[in-house]
Design goal:
The chain has 415 residues and is α/β, with parallel strands linked by helices. It has 15 helices and 15 strands.
């Protein structure tokens, strides 16, 4: 056991006593399926007793998703929810009938919500913790990285929920700044996403390229076809490239027809290919066929890239990434790629030409990306950060530190 593990072990013992582990209940619609990955290492932790609550169904982006069956060793409770469909504006209106009874049954030290603080389920949880379960620490998770006043009643929900929150989990510093501006004064932990290493890993590149039908230097994009992803910038850069560079897009979205029209206008029909949305296994196959992955997201008044999970998936496959400087992209890309200013098609074009004739530079960035994906974005690293959040939240609540929230420090894993 290293020094850090010893310290955290002592904290758990102080919080929960030596007779039982720290009881944590985590509620998350993201954990219907692959979102569960980060919880598995915690099941091997003898000092954490985790129960995961997920909705039986969820609707988003026009798709209806159903919870995967419970997957041992995770203790998963699949529960019905009201209002399972997410609106275009991402107003989460769902809640769990009977949540109070379930919390009373499980009697957690920590109630964790992988839900935004303005969601109905977060408000419900905060109310329960305030009125019925005052000894339970409340941990809320947020990705929102742009400060803007939400419409009524969501702004009021956010501020009320944050007042009862004992620990805030954020994806990046900007999300913490937003919550600070909304009145939150407590501690925080940065918890990033983890990659599914069972699916995303370096495969035989030549075999992958043959299966996808790729021959020349190819960059690619995987995700929703929407204006915010900067795909027109990529097309403009491709048109200006001197080298014979190809572009493969996998995904669906409202911008599909306009993008196809732009491809025809630029005369790129022979160099741009659209593939339909596919399974995770197919995504991994396409990523492995690429020379470089590209994510040129554009910031708008109401949105900027919150993380870019496909970045780490590409890197896990050994594919380096070109990203814009929108939101968290530069931090996530790290040394596993290159950063270009948003909407700067001229700079992107020059970089693409250079990389297409610099295989050693591409390979070196690919190696760095694999290293980052297997360490920083591993499920073990992410679970360790979750553990820190749970333990510190319970200690603060038990010690009465929540009454002096402004004295709490912010915690972040060393990079």
């Amino acid at each position: 056991m290293n020094d850090c593990e010893l310290i955290m072990s002592n904290v758990v013992e102080q919080v929960s006593g030596s007779q039982r582990p720290l009881k944590v209940v985590s509620i998350s619609h993201t954990a219907l399926s692959n979102g569960r990955l980060r919880y598995y290492p915690l099941m091997e932790d003898q000092e954490i007793d985790l129960t995961l609550i997920v909705p039986e169904r969820w609707k988003e982006y026009g798709r209806e998703l159903f919870a995967d069956p419970p997957s041992p060793p995770l203790d998963i409770r699949v529960r019905p929810i009201r209002f399972p469909e997410v609106s275009k504006a991402k107003w989460y209106l769902h809640f769990y009938p009977g949540l109070g009874r379930l919390i009373e049954e499980l009697s957690p030290d920590v109630l964790h919500l992988w839900e935004e603080p303005w969601s109905a389920v977060a408000l419900h949880a905060a109310w329960l913790c305030s009125r019925r379960f005052p000894q339970t620490a409340l941990v809320i998770e947020t990705d929102q990285n742009i400060l803007r006043r939400l419409p009524t009643p969501f702004e009021q929900i956010r501020r009320r929920t944050l007042r009862r929150t004992d620990m805030l989990i954020v994806r990046q510093r900007e999300a913490l700044d937003v919550c600070r501006a909304c009145g939150y004064q407590g501690p925080s932990v940065i918890v990033e996403y983890c990659v599914d290493a069972s699916c995303f890993y370096p495969a035989d590149k030549q075999a992958s390229r043959s299966q996808i039908g790729v021959n020349d230097f190819t960059v690619g994009y995987v995700g929703r076809l929407i204006p915010e992803k900067g795909l027109y910038t990529v097309l403009d850069a491709l048109r200006a490239c001197r080298q014979n560079i190809h572009f493969t897009l996998l995904g669906e979205g409202p911008e599909r027809e306009c993008l196809e029209q732009r491809v025809r206008q630029l005369g790129l029909e022979n160099r741009v290919r659209f593939l339909p949305a596919a399974s995770q296994e197919k995504v991994a196959q396409v990523l492995n066929a690429l020379d470089v992955f590209i994510l040129m997201s554009r910031t708008t008044p109401t949105w900027k890239e919150q993380f870019g999970r496909v970045i780490m998936e590409a890197q896990a496959c050994g594919v380096p990434v070109i990203g814009s400087n929108s939101g968290s992209i530069p931090s996530v890309v790290g040394k596993g790629g290159w950063i270009v200013e948003e909407s700067d098609s001229a700079s992107l074009s020059r970089l693409l030409d250079r990389l297409s004739t610099s295989p050693h530079e591409v390979a070196a960035a690919g190696v760095e990306g694999v290293r980052q994906a297997s360490t920083r974005f591993s499920r073990e690293a992410v679970a360790a950060d979750l553990r820190t959040a749970f333990v510190e939240a319970a200690r603060g609540r038990r010690g009465g530190a929540s009454a002096h929230a402004n004295k709490h420090p912010s915690y972040a894993r060393a990079r």
